Amino acid sequence: MPSSYDDDSIISPMTMRGRDWPCLRQFCVFMENRVGRLHELLKQIEQHDLRIIALSIVDTVDFAVARVMANDTDRVREILSLTDFTVIENDILGVELPDEYDPFGSIFRTLVSAEINIAYTYPLLYRRSRRGAIALYVDNIDVARQILQDKGHHLLTENDLQTDEFF
User: H or E element: which one contains 113?
Assistant: First the structure.
């Protein structure tokens, strides 16, 4: 780097996102579809005083994929790195359900109007101001995030998962 640069001129990489970034992290855990394997996975997470926020299972005869979200992404990442599970992380949107007649329709219409495809969705164990939330995996997360925010939908951050209201 040229000597005319000082430390204040260095731009941090975009991959450094804080807990207030409007996306959540999902862990996709691949495992054999056999008795007790899901229990092993969940025990690894919950024995460290972590709260599972979402769990979605896709299975076949031979294998399964567990999509897991918890209240502390960094700790889950560390714990899973010490196991024999094969894990992939990806960004996913968490959207608070609006207080409307058709909260799902409101969210989905917003995405359809921008021609955003929803690959899958599942509920989050989250509640604030008497509203629940859903996780959305879409084909273009950046455009979806922007259009949802522009239309007034509240996107969850990792901070929200640590401070929600219990039922």
Answer: helix 103-113
